[in-house]
Amino acid sequence: MKADAVVFTAPNEVVFSQVDCPEPEADDVVIDVKHSWISNGTEGSFLRGERIDGDTPYREGDPWPFPIIAGYQKVGVVDWVGENVTKCKAGDWVFGLFGQVEGLYDSRAGHVSPAITNQNQVWLLPEGVDPVAFSGLVLTQVGYNCGARCELQPGDGAIVIGDGLVGLWTAQTLVSRGAQVMLVGRHAYRLQKFIHEEPHSVVNSREENWIELAKERFPEGAQVGVDTVGSLKIMNDFFSVMKRGGHLVSAGFYGTEDALSLQPLRYKELTIQLPSGATGDRLDTTIDYIASGKLGTLPLITHRFPAAQASKAWDVIKAKSEEVLGVVLDW
Q: What is the DSSP letter of 54?
């Protein structure tokens, strides 16, 4: 079976081409993909050759991770179901995780259509909501996971570092839980996408010292600190602005430079959470949050490209010459 796909063939080389797929089996769903959402950070590090798996950095001696179809999130219409499939039927709108391919570095594929996907990696979408809103579901779930991980009480202070998609969805989740959120970023157009009426606020770290502002805003310390950009400096900077017994969340990718000293955490009895991946329960909850409006996804889409123009999409993402945030491929 053949499918169209966005293939990374070498570092910083993106092509749209046909690939081979296995024949679907009894537990599989064949999805006619309509929209897939690019994960700028994770997929970008694959494109640069920095990873060989989701959270596994490339090290010298590892097999070169090309060619590969990166990505892990898409929505579309069910075209065919195997005889054992009970979750959906032909004609349903669904979200799908990995499609199955052959002859590449990894048999799992994100940006591919049609996508042959095991029914355990398929979610039926609710009616009455634009399906595009769910096309970045895994990444949205990362933000939900970051914001839901830590214990907090309404009114507690929370600091989120990073104004990318994960940072924005983390901030939204914390707001829904009653936290007073300070979102710290470096891009005015992204910070503006966070509804930050009092008691919430944004800080452009290019212009202001977020640490000093955090100390003023939360004189007793913040209960939650979330790093979504993958910076050990930021993780260390958190130590001075956290409440005793507070919680840190590390959601960035640190590559091989990932050593964090434990003793400073002990001074304030801080705990640290390390969210990774997706689970069925969290994806279910994220779908509910999107459908109810607790998590906004459509307002974060800044660019849409035909899937065949994926290389152009990546040119925009890499160059950062435009105000780019959420990028969706339309199939």
A: T
